[in-house]
Each structure stands twice: as C-alpha cells, then as structure tokens.
Amino acid sequence: MRMVFRWFGEGNDTVSLGQIKQIPGVEGIVWALHDIPAGEAWPMEKILEVRDQAAKFNLHLDVVESVNVHEDIKLGLPTRDQYIQNYITTIERLAQVGVKVICYNFMPVFDWARTELHKEMEDGSTALFFEKSRIDGIDPFKFVEEINRNSTLTMPGWEPERLAHLTSLFEAYKGVSAEDLWEHLAYFLEAVVPVAERCGVQMAIHPDDPPWPIFGLPRIITGQESLRRLLSLIDNPSNGITLCSGSFGANPNNDIVAMIHEFHGRIPFAHIRNVRVYENGDFIETSHRTQDGTVDIAGIVKAYHDNGFNGYVRPDHGRHLWDEDCRPGYGLYDRALGIMYLWGLWDALERVQPIHRKGETV
After folding, report:
1. Where is average pLDDT lowest: 39-48, 112-121, 311-320?
2. Of 112, 158, 219, 243, which sits most exposed with the smallest number of CB within 10 A?
3. Which of 269, 237, 246, 257 has its CA nearest to residue 62?
C-alpha cells in the first residue's frame, strides 16, 4: 500500500505541501491542473511547475486526479476526436514526469452530488451530506447555485466554466441512454488505452458518486457488474479502476470486499473512506473508523492486504474538524487521522501475516 494525499495546488488549497510531508507514510501527491478546462491539452510548463513544487518536499507525482473528460466525448459528438487527441497529448506529457496512474470519471455533467457541504454531526464536526428526497426534487440549476455559493476555492467537478453551459448540457443529454454512454466510453478507451500502455500509464475510472442516476442523467459505473463490463471493453492492464469505497458504499448492496478480491489486479488506485447510510437512502461522510459508518473499512484494508496490494491509496473526503477553514471534504486534520487509521490496520495485519512478493517480505 503506497499512501498519497490529494493536493489542489498552490493558491488553491488550504493544506500546504509542507504539512502533507509531515503525515507519516505519505510519499506523493494526487494532483491536477484545475485551471485547465476539460478538453484542453495540459501545458508542459504547468506540469513541470507542479513537479518542481513537489520535488522540494521529496513528494512524487505518480497519480493524477483528474484529467477531466470533455462532455463532447461522453455525448459521442463528432467533435470528440479532437478532444480525445488533446487527452492523448496530456497522457504523453504526464508520462514524461513519471505519472503512473490517471484517475478519471465518465459521469455526465456532475462529477459528484451532495445536498449539504457542512452538515453538523453529533460530535460537533461537519461533513458532506446527501439527502436523497431533496436531490430527487431539487431543480439542478438551484442545486448548482447552492453548491457554489460560499466557495472561494475550486470544487472538483464543479468548475464554473464547465457549469456555465448547464442549459445546453441538459438539452444535449436528452435521449442519451446508459447504453449510449457505454458506447461512448468504449470509443474513448479504444483510443486512449493503447497510448497509456505505451507510456506506462494506467487509466483508472472512478465510480459514479452517488452510484445511481440523478437529474435524469444516466450513470453507468455503479457496482460490481458494471466493473466487469468496463474491464471487458478493453482487456488491458492499462484499463483499470479507482476503487472508491465511499462512492460504492453509498449503496449498501455493493460488496466492496468482494470487488477487491475479484478486481485487485486491475486496481492501481484506491480511495478509502467511510459513509453512514440511512434507511431512507440519505448518507453522510464519517470518520474513516469502521465503527463510525456503514462501510467495512477494516475488511476493505484486509482484502487489499490479503491480495498483496501495492497500488496507491489515499484517504478520501474527511470531516471538518477543530474549526478548520478548508475546501469541503478536503481539510488536513481528518484526512491525516484517516491515514493513521489505515496504517494502523495495515501494520496490524503485517504483524499477523506479512506480505511476501518474489520471495521477500515487504
């Protein structure tokens, strides 16, 4: 298990690289160029700038999250080929600085959805919250307004330039079915996976968050069967999965431990976080501790350990603790606590049954 930490860049994150470096066991950052609109090739000079910033703290850039997929690709429009070519250019440039994994998603319009960014919990901390009945009835335009109202930092997946064309996007997706979206994903992967393989990069799709359709938009990466279909589209190690326990865990029917046992060879990157799911379908993001949520975090870590997992892991969304002023879900304190919990589980498993690879104990 190789621990990394998501960082949104200088001037766009309340957490500094110096603070990240002090978290035990963290070896690299999970990063992106958040000021580059989806569909544009990432400039090499900006990539090198982040590389140099991280190098000052001896942190690597092995994992990128996300190189956003342009909506024209998801919609299957004739213009998609140019955007795919730009994506390929970005893959090639990222490989030059040692990037090994690109986490991306194929969710139409919205990368994720929550109805409240600072829902107060019993202990006084706050967390991201999803109220199912409210999302089912809210106007998507009002929803976007509420999400962006109090944010001075970019929200991943909610970049203003992308959402400025919301009306035209909803119009464009009318008549686009889940099967259409699968076809468009296959077309994209057929173009980029061979390039990724040549460059030594693994594409790793992130599940839909939450893992069901919202606002009448199709969603397709929702559970174990959809992951089987994804991997069968192109049977290539560079076609992989970002297995997010929080996204899949919002649906209690998803058996994440079983997913790890089945797909571990195709999971180069894992998000490990906990959620508490209520009977009415609402869910809130809790601490990473197993007992605090519905997701079997201890079982998940054991499944990775049992399969000799040596991919990248990051703590995902954390609560907001101790009056920290931070991007919703991405403060320092709870994610650092989450890392130490994950290491505690892993280290305990190592004491009981060390992993053996190629004849050596690691």
Report:
1. 112-121
2. 158
3. 269
